[in-house]
Write a structure and sequence with these properties.
By secondary structure, the chain is an all-alpha fold. It has helices at 11-38, 40-65, 83-97, 103-125, 137-156. The protein is built from five helices and no strands. The chain has two domains: 11-67 and 80-100, no CATH class; 101-162. InterPro entries: YdcZ (IPR006750). The chain crosses the membrane at residues 12-30, 42-64, 76-96, 102-121, 142-160. This is Membrane protein. Keywords: Membrane, Transmembrane, Transmembrane helix.
């Protein structure tokens, strides 16, 4: 049970997170298709090249709409730029594994389990300036259920006996 003073999640935020999971699935599938035709490096270049063009267009639109103010923003820490490196590695790894017997479901199941484990470590030790959070039995149970679910998908999913 949550404490009475704990903030309740915004339904729009829950919907946005759920939608991002759907987009992630579509992205991994499309990267896997590109990887099956041109390899993992091609898949990564294609995804990031498309993202770069989209970002340039998006920034151009925002730049034209931005009011002129003397406001300056704080610079991002140097480690924040490593997101591109991990993104490129993620695209290459997923576009490779989705074309193996793991398939799309197995790749995503293990990927999500890895995300949860890393995010719990980030909460526990306060990585990247996050506030430290003491992990409990509920967190361990969630990880265990995700790992078991991943194994069920991989070992007993559709086409597993093929």
């Amino acid at each position: 049970m949550s404490s009475p003073d704990a903030p309740q999640p915004n339904p729009l935020h829950l919907l946005a997170a759920f939608g991002s999971g759907g987009l992630l699935t579509m992205m991994v599938f499309l990267n896997g298709e590109a990887g099956s035709h041109g390899g993992a490096l091609f898949s990564s270049w294609l995804a990031h090249g498309t993202g770069t063009v989209a970002a340039i267009i998006f920034l151009a639109v925002l730049w034209r709409r931005r009011p002129a103010t003397g406001e300056t923003r704080a610079k991002a820490p140097l480690w924040a730029y490593l997101g591109g490196v991990s993104g490129a590695a993620t695209v290459m790894l997923t576009s490779t594994t989705v074309n193996t017997p793991l398939a799309l479901a197995g790749t995503l199941a293990l990927g999500l389990a890895g995300q949860v484990v890393f995010s719990l470590a980030a909460d526990q030790w306060g990585f990247f300036g996050l506030p430290k959070r003491r992990l409990g039995l509920r967190d361990a149970g969630a990880v265990a259920l995700m790992v078991v679910g991943s194994l069920l998908i991989i070992l007993f999913g559709v086409g597993a006996s093929a």
